[in-house]
Structure formats: structure tokens, C-alpha cells
Write a structure and sequence with these properties.
By secondary structure, the protein is mainly β. 1% of the residues lie in helices and 56% in strands.
Length: 548
């Protein structure tokens, strides 16, 4: 960069000397620099400068551009440049401390620094496609495929040797020996396993418990000695499908399926169950049971006993209550003295209430507490009487129900109904006529021609199909034949319109009025200062503008 192109480097020779300062604008406000300051933007001696070749890159940067090499990959020691050499069937590749050599198809070898110790070499070789050899700080492997495998993990201090079906694995605190598929065995610090498929034998332990299987015999335990019911905390064993036994800290069980036997005992509840075929025996702290299924059932406890000989006889008592049942009758007495008796065609209950049934058709129910007396002769007659209500029904011709001082309803056949109560009344002739009042609301329906519903706020009336009227506190809409009238109360006044379809329409608004002939064939509208006319349905503004 020549002199004069940057501040502080002097002027260009073509300018012939220093420039004069520009003439000051008299209207520009005067500014004062801080003490000791001058007009230079950059302090003398601090001017920026550029290198001689600003776009030049170092060789190391150029080598990295476009490379996808992961510096943390397994192939340690590689750099960004790879050398390849071909000599017929011989191939060689090198990159830093990494190298690969191939003499196809006899020999191949790869060398690189070990991952955990870069000072040691990691070499892997293949001879004739059958023998594999690797030596590094981590691995020491020999494989003669497919007969012999010897794999050593130097870090884990483990070795695995495979000779055909024979497998031997050794690691700190662990050992495995297999002769597939005849024998599989292993040891661990807290247990081990043994599997002999031809003998259907399997055994495993983990220090807390284990599982053992020998043919149909099995045993599973937790805590204590192996398969020792005297010391194990939880144990299950048996000979499937003939015998099963198990116990834990709370309970024990025993099952012999061929003998239909099941036994269970619970130490916490001191209860037990014992089943031998049809014989069932159970004990709890409250009850004892003995059954001969499905004919005999017996339960007993303190002040309680129940015996059933099905289907002939049942008798049971619980303190003061008892029940006797047989094919002829049933009799029972409750704890509070209530009694029940039922036989063919007659039943009776006496307690706080009473019920009598003569044949399945006649029922009488009484509740003395509310002085209620109710009769039913199914399906024709029903009566219900008490100090607060009275009902009489002779189906399907007549029904009368009354709640004294509240409501009263009368049905004559299923079609006529009249009801009145403290809120109003209704008379119905189903399904055509409905008339009534509910408080301040009324309704009149003569289906399907006339409908009228009225409340203090609104009313809807329809005399189909000639008359329709709907009104509320703000607006009214009415249609009589082809004459439609609508009226509404707005915040600025009254708005109404009338239409004689299809000939003429007229309406008034708080700020004007309008009329139309044949929906706008001819028409006139005035709203405030706006005046419009319609000719051939085309609106034309005569004066004014649209109001907001």
C-alpha cells in the first residue's frame, strides 16, 4: 500500500502537498475536542496493516480440508496423508504409524499403536485365510478357523479357548467349561450353573438362592442351604405333574394333583385349607368348614352353625338369628326379631314392615312408621295409601294419584291425563293435545297444526302453515300468509319493516325510511343525509354518504 492511502501516511504525490482544511459552515454548531486530542481517528503508530499474502494457508490446514478422519478413531497413529503401493498381488498402505500389507491370498497384516498404550504395537495378521493372530497391549488372540480359538483380554485378565465343541473360559473369579451340546458348566464368586441337556438337568445358584431341575424334579429356593426346607426362607419343589410343595416365612402349601389334594397353611392368620378329592376342610380364626362336595356343607364358629344337605335340607343359626330351608318351605328369624316364611303360593314377612304374597299375583305391603298400605293385584290393580298420598290404578283404563296439598293426577285410558300442582296444571290428550301452565309459563299444542309457548319474556305461536309469530322483549317477527312483519328496538330507536311477497316492501329506521318494488325493480332509501334510488335493481346514490 503506497503512502497517502491510509490516514497518517502523508498525502499522495499527485496532490502536490497538504490539503487545506474545508471551509467551516457558519450554521454548524461548534465542537471542542478533549484536552490533548487531535483530528486523527487512529493514534499515530497504531495504524492497521495486512500480511503480505492474506489468503495463503499453511500446509497443515490444506491437508485437513475435506478430511473425514476421526482423530479419536480406533486406527491410532494415522495422519492425513495415505501412501498406497501396488506390486501385482502385493498391496501396501501406510499412514503415519498405521500400515496395512496384503499378499493375496496368502497373507495380510495390519499395524497401528495400541489404543491404551501408544508405545506398544497393535498387530493383526491373517495367514491363508484360516489362521488369525493378534498381539497388542489389550489383546492376544489366536484363531485357526474353525477348529481352534484362543482369545485373551489382557485388561480383563480373561481367556477363552475353543477347540471344536469344547469351550473353556477363565476370568478373575469366573470359570466356564462347555462340551456342546452335552454339558455346560460355570462358576462365579457367588455361585454358578450346570446344564446337562441329555439328562434334563439344570442347576444355578447366585449366592442368595438358586434353581435345580433333574428331569421332572425341580427345586427353587432363596436363603439357607440348597433345597433344604428347614433352613430356606422361600422354597418350592416337586415332581411335575405329581407333587408340588412350597413354603415361605408366612405360609406353606402342598398339592398332589393325581389325588386331588391341596393343602395350604398361613402362619400370619393361623388359617389352613386341606382338600382331598370331594372332602374340603378349612379353618380360620372365626370359622371352621367341612364340605363333601357337592352334597354336604357345614360351617361352624362361636355361637354359629350352618349345615346344608343339598338339595334337601339347610339349617343355620347365628346367635339369635336362624334359617330353615327345604323343598317345601323356608322359615327364618333375624337378629332383631323379624321373621320370614315362604312356601308354594304364599309368603310372609314380619318386621318393621310387613309383606304378604298370595300366589305370585297378589302382594300387600305395609309400613306402620308412615302408615303406608299398598296392594298389588298383578297386572290390573294397584293401590297405595298413606297420610301424605293416595293412589288408585285400574290398568289400563283408570289411574288417580294424589299427594295431599301438593299435586293430583288423573289418567283415563292411556290417552287422557290431567295434572295440577302448586305451580300450575296440565291437560293432555296423547298424542294430539297438550295444554297447561307452569308458574308464569303456558303452553298450548294441537299437533301438528297449532303450537303456542309463552313466558313473561317471550312468546312463540305457530298456526301451521299460515301464521308464524315469535317475540321477545327486544324484537317481534310475524308471518301471515305472504305478509312478513319485523320490529326491533335498538339503542337509537325503533326499527320496523313489512314485506308483501314478492310485490312490495317498506321499512322505517330511526334516521330514515325505505321502500322497494319487486325487491328493487324500483326503490328508494333515505338514511340521514344519504339518499339512494333503485332502478332495475341497480342502486344509485343521489346525495350524501353511507352513515358510520
Amino acid at each position: 500500500m503506497g503512502p497517502g492511502l491510509m490516514p497518517g501516511f502523508g498525502n499522495s504525490p499527485s496532490e502536490g502537498g497538504p490539503k487545506k482544511p474545508p471551509k467551516k459552515d457558519p450554521n454548524q454548531p461548534e465542537t471542542h475536542a478533549a484536552p490533548g486530542a487531535d483530528d486523527n481517528v487512529v493514534a499515530p503508530g497504531g495504524e492497521p496493516s495486512l500480511p503480505d499474502s492474506p489468503l495463503k494457508l499453511r500446509r497443515r490446514t490444506l491437508d485437513r480440508i475435506g478430511s473425514d478422519l476421526d482423530p479419536d478413531s480406533e486406527e491410532q497413529g494415522r495422519d492425513n496423508r495415505t501412501t498406497h503401493r501396488f506390486y501385482g498381488p502385493y498391496y501396501e498402505e501406510s499412514s503415519g504409524k498405521y500400515s496395512f500389507k496384503l499378499a493375496f491370498p496368502v497373507w495380510a497384516e495390519r499395524n497401528q499403536p495400541s489404543r491404551t498404550d501408544a508405545s506398544k504395537n497393535d498387530r493383526a495378521s491373517v495367514f491363508g485365510g484360516l489362521y488369525y493372530n493378534r498381539r497388542s497391549a489389550e489383546r492376544s488372540d489366536d484363531v485357526l478357523f474353525p477348529l481352534f480359538w484362543n482369545l485373551v483380554d489382557e485388561r480383563a485378565k480373561s481367556r477363552t479357548t475353543i477347540v471344536g465343541p469344547i469351550v473353556n473360559r477363565v476370568a478373575p473369579g469366573e470359570r466356564d467349561n462347555w462340551i456342546a451340546p452335552l454339558y455346560f458348566g460355570g462358576k462365579r464368586k457367588t455361585g454358578g450353573y450346570t446344564l446337562i441337556p441329555p439328562l434334563l438337568t439344570y442347576n444355578t445358584t447366585d449366592g442368595r438362592g438358586g434353581f435345580r431341575l433333574i428331569g421332572p424334579m425341580f427345586c427353587s429356593w432363596e436363603g439357607g442351604s440348597e433345597c433344604d426346607a428347614r433352613t430356606a426362607q422361600d422354597i418350592d419343589f416337586g415332581v411335575a405333574p405329581f407333587y408340588f410343595y412350597g413354603q415361605n416365612a408366612e405360609s406353606k402349601y402342598e398339592t398332589i394333583p393325581p389325588l386331588l389334594h391341596y393343602y395350604k397353611y398361613n402362619d400370619r392368620s393361623l388359617s389352613w385349607t386341606n382338600v382331598w378329592g370331594p372332602f374340603y376342610r378349612e379353618h380360620t380364626q372365626k370359622l371352621d368348614m367341612f364340605h363333601v362336595l357337592p352334597l354336604y356343607f357345614s360351617l361352624w364358629g362361636k355361637n354359629e352353625r350352618h349345615t346344608t344337605v343339598f338339595p334337601f335340607f339347610h339349617y343355620g343359626y347365628d346367635r339369635n338369628a336362624w334359617l330353615l330351608a327345604n323343598p317345601l318351605f323356608l322359615a327364618a328369624k333375624g337378629q332383631n326379631g323379624e321373621s320370614t316364611f315362604a312356601t308354594w303360593g304364599y309368603a310372609r314377612y314380619r318386621g318393621r314392615t310387613s309383606l304378604d304374597m298370595i300366589t305370585p299375583l297378589y302382594w300387600r305391603f305395609q309400613d306402620p312408621d308412615i302408615d303406608l298400605d299398598q296392594h298389588l293385584l298383578f297386572p290390573f290393580l294397584f293401590t297405595r295409601n298413606s297420610p301424605r298420598e293416595s293412589t288408585f290404578a285400574l290398568f289400563p283404563f283408570f289411574a288417580h294419584s294424589k299427594r295431599f296439598g301438593v299435586s293430583e293426577s288423573t289418567f283415563i285410558t292411556p290417552f287422557f291425563q290431567h295434572t295440577h300442582d302448586v305451580r300450575g296444571w296440565s291437560t293432555n290428550l296423547h298424542p294430539l293435545v297438550y295444554v297447561g301452565r307452569d308458574a308464569t309459563s303456558t303452553h298450548t299444542v294441537v299437533a301438528p297444526f297449532f303450537f303456542d309457548f309463552a313466558t313473561p319474556e317471550s312468546r312463540s305461536t305457530v298456526a301451521f302453515p299460515a301464521f308464524w309469530r315469535f317475540s321477545n322483549q327486544k324484537e317481534t317477527s310475524q308471518l301471515v300468509g305472504n305478509v312478513y312483519y319485523h320490529e326491533a328496538t335498538t339503542s337509537v330507536g325503533r326499527d320496523w319493516e313489512v314485506h308483501i311477497f314478492p310485490a312490495f316492501s317498506y321499512g322505517e329506521t330511526p334516521d330514515g325510511h325505505w321502500w322497494n318494488v319487486l325487491y328493487g325493480l324500483a326503490g328508494y332509501t333515505r338514511r340521514g343525509s344519504l339518499v339512494k334510488v333503485r332502478t332495475l335493481w341497480i342502486p344509485i346514490t343521489v346525495s350524501g354518504t353511507e352513515p358510520p
